[in-house]
Specification:
CATH class: Mainly Beta
Shape: globular
Number of strands: 27
Largest sheet: 6 strands, antiparallel
CATH topology: Tachylectin-2, Chain A
Helix content: under 10%
Strand content: over 45%
Number of helices: 2
Structural class: mainly beta
Number of domains: 1
CATH architecture: 5 Propeller
Order of helices and strands: EEEEEEEEEEEEEEEEEEEEEEEHEEEHE
């Protein structure tokens, strides 16, 4: 597989983003949704900010208080035996089976803009910021689907009651219309197809199973983009392979003459994230035609291997130009990068589950 990583990579780093709030530091500018609008490539960055603690023995958890309409800062001492601070992203409660109780940062969406797809400038202000109780712990990993002149932006919303997926829409990337939660907890990695298929909208999603089952890709349909049903399991984990630990959608699926091509992320049990591909039937996207036996892309560059959470290549959004896929992807849970790949080479690399189409 020929992969051309942009020499400017990483295109956006935390150092390129000014903190929204005084006393905070930006620790991540990554996992951005991608849109093309009025001659520009837009990155809808997930910006993660955390409060700077003046005491090295204290970790501060930022929580959006919907009643007050502002952030609440909750301090935790590292010598408090009730909590586990080993993962820098979360504060875990040992008495609750190690489940996370708070996040150490708050995420929101900010826009970065480029005329050439290589050099970006970041807006001074947030585009979408937490505004209700479902977003108490932040807004994460936005994706963008354009249908006509409307851009549908959907993202994970995190709160003490779970992680779900909410939807907003815009026609100008200035004003937004909020549509509420479209996939309830626990669910994330939603991707909405860019057109109706036989009269239905389709979306990929990834429920997080707590009783039985695994973090795998499902597909659902809708008449109106708001209410989703007829859920079906689409793609599962594979023991001993690059996607044995968890899988989820990456870039919005796009059309090829062979089918809908979805560039998804897969991870091993030790959290090494790679990018692979799955080919779905054009007229029935619930039918899997082919899938990557080996990753299409792996963390190899230093900026992919080292960061806040290393060994991560996380596909986010694809811009298609003929046979070229301009793949914008998150690296090491820290920054954004881009690489170019060939659609034909990706299709040729797939393992077909039935007679090749």
């Amino acid at each position: 597989m020929n992969i051309y990583r942009y020499p400017e990579n990483p295109l956006i780093t935390p150092a390129d983003v000014k903190p929204h709030r005084e006393g905070f530091e930006v620790i991540g500018a990554f996992n951005a949704g991608i849109a093309e609008y009025q001659g520009e490539t837009l990155m809808l960055l997930r910006v993660a900010e955390r409060p700077v603690s003046g005491d090295p023995n204290v970790v501060i958890a930022p929580v959006f208080n919907a009643e007050r309409g502002d952030l609440e800062l909750i301090p935790f001492r590292k010598d408090d035996d009730r909590y586990d601070f080993s993962d820098p992203r979360v504060i875990r409660n040992k008495s609750k089976n190690g489940t996370f109780e708070y996040l150490t940062s708050l995420s929101y969406i900010r826009i970065a803009r480029s005329r050439d797809g290589h050099h970006f400038t970041v807006d001074d202000q947030p585009f979408i910021y937490p505004s209700n109780e479902q977003e108490a712990f932040g807004i994460e990993d936005p994706r963008v689907t354009q249908i006509g002149d409307t851009y549908y932006i959907y993202f994970s919303v995190v709160s003490p009651v779970g992680i779900g997926e909410s939807l907003v829409s815009t026609t100008d990337f200035v004003t937004t219309r909020h549509h509420g939660m479209i996939f309830g907890p626990d669910n994330k990695d939603v991707l909405i197809f860019p057109e109706k298929i036989n009269g239905k909208y389709y979306a990929l999603h990834r429920p997080t199973m707590k009783s039985i089952g695994n973090p795998e890709i499902w597909i659902a349909e809708s008449d109106n983009l708001l209410y989703w049903g007829n859920h079906k399991h689409l793609l599962g984990l594979r023991d001993g392979m690059w996607d044995s630990g968890r899988i989820g959608g990456g870039a919005v699926p796009f059309k090829t003459d062979k089918g809908w091509l979805e560039l998804y992320h897969g991870a091993t049990s030790d959290h090494r994230y790679c990018m692979g591909a799955v080919l779905l039937d054009l007229n029935d996207p619930t039918r899997v035609i082919a899938r990557s036996g080996k990753p299409v892309m792996e963390p190899e560059a230093e900026y992919e291997k080292q960061g806040f959470f290393g060994d991560v290549v996380f596909s986010c959004g694809a811009v298609i130009d003929g046979d070229t896929v301009k793949m914008f992807y998150g690296v090491a849970d820290t920054s954004m990068a881009c690489a170019e790949l060939s659609v034909k080479e990706i299709l040729d690399s797939l393992e077909y589950l039935e007679a090749k189409v």
